[in-house]
Amino acid sequence: MRKICSILAICSISFLQISCSVKTGCDIPRQEALDPASSLHLLGNTETTWQTNPPTSGPHYPIPPKGGNYDYTLSNLEQVAFLESGGVVVQYNPNLKNFNRKQLSPFANESVLVAPNQTLESFLVATAWTWKLSCEGYYPEELEKFIYEYGGKVFGTHD
User: Structure pTM?
Assistant: First the structure.
């Protein structure tokens, strides 16, 4: 009986290690702490730091960029300005093979900005004001749900 229990315990631990070590899908949306410098509007490209990459709050430009598809990486100042206005920024790592960025084009609109970002640790990251979703692949249903639930939240709201 002891041998059976030991074997079951070892199998259970092995299964948990294997299933927890393989990254698939998207994580659950995570709320990040509001950066204390979020009310700081900057006019130039100044030396500043953000608490996370990509940022979900922090110093930013006073005027946000327009939503839509971009073929270049936006600065953190631009990203946070867009988030503060209630927008969602969807970024993908362009260095990963087997991904067609045109798959993300349908998500881009006046309140959703889609852009490449070579500094991402994940395949795709969506951000909203103080919220982040990281994905290890293209999961349109998860992305759509994040945009619906977290888009439109603007600085100063407590939803």
Answer: 0.81
